Amino acid sequence: MALKGMRSVGWGLMLFLALSIALVSSRYLMADPEIYFPEQKLVYMAHTAAILAHVAGSIIALVLGPWQFIRRWRTGRRLAIHRWTGRIYLLGVVVGGLSGLYMAQLAYGGWITTLGFTLLALSWLATAVMAYTRIRKKNVPAHQRWMIRNYALTFAAVTLRLHLPLLTAVLGLEFVTAYRTVAWLAWVPNLLIVEWFLYRRATQ
Ligand code: HEM
Predict the structure, then answer these.
(1) Measured CA distances, 66 to 2, 31, 53, 94, 153 (Å)
(2) CA of 10 to the centre of ligand 1 (A)
């Protein structure tokens, strides 16, 4: 398959997975404790505003992100749409990231999970700040690189929910062990993959 075709399939798969997880996560917005994940039900009931802010902000980022990578939507008159979508995306990351940082301190599984999610939240916020400050300085290539890293971290929401059933059902790990593992496995490989991709693109 030609490179362009492979890119379109990859983008389509990314969009499909992002929309699916956004849809599944949107149940949380009903603030119904019955649908919270059982181990954390009491925590979410005591911190409803934070978990709702987290899910709402993160869904916005997850859904808007893929469209920003379409090259022809970043030219001519469409650039205005890219800018506005980008501002809303960043708002989603800031709201989702700050509330995620807060929720990380209460996460299921103890300090290993807390540390994994805390570093994810800080990296998510830091890459967003880098992407924003680069484009304010009109440095488009650097802005693009930081946004690729940032969306790889947004995509942790997808990879977490793919890894978790694999670790429990296929490898037979206990839920708590699987949860501690995905607090890291959901995002560190994502970052390594995009770093490799960016390195290859720069050296080709
Ligand atoms: C990328 C940065 C993110 C960080 C640091 C983060 C952090 C967290 C933390 C700490 C929790 C609480 C976990 C616990 O109670 O054990 C949580 C739960 C949750 N997050 Fe995120 N999250 C991020 C991205 C996202 C995204 C993009 C979504 C997409 C919709 C999302 C959706 C959810 C949902 C639905 C829950 C409730 C628990 C569940 O059903 O898994 N998060 N997140």
Answers:
(1) 21, 27, 21, 18, 13
(2) 24
For ligand 1, mutation pick of 54, 98, 164 (most atoms within 8 Å of CB) = 54
Find out whether the beta carbon of 53 lies less than 6 Å from any atom of ligand 1: no
**pLDDT confidence of residue 1:** 61
Which residues contact residue 179 at a Cβ distance below 8 angstroms, ignoring those fewer than 6 apart?
Answer: 108, 109, 113, 164
The burial class, CB within 10 Å (0-12 / 13-18 / 19+), for 126 is middle
Q: Atom 19 in ligand 1: which residue has the minimum CA distance?
A: 55
Long-range contacts of 126-133 (CB under 8 A, 24+ apart): 127/153, 128/90, 128/93, 128/94, 128/97, 131/90, 132/90
Average pLDDT rounded to a whole number, residues 179-195 = 98
* Global pTM value: 0.94
Query: Does residue 180 line the site of ligand 1, with CB under 6 A?
Result: no
Q: Is the pLDDT of residue 30 over 80?
A: yes
Q: Identify residue 46 by its one-letter amino acid code.
A: A
Among the residues of the chain, which ranges form H helices? 3-25, 41-46, 48-68, 79-104, 111-136, 140-154, 156-165, 175-185, 188-203
Residues in the chain: 204
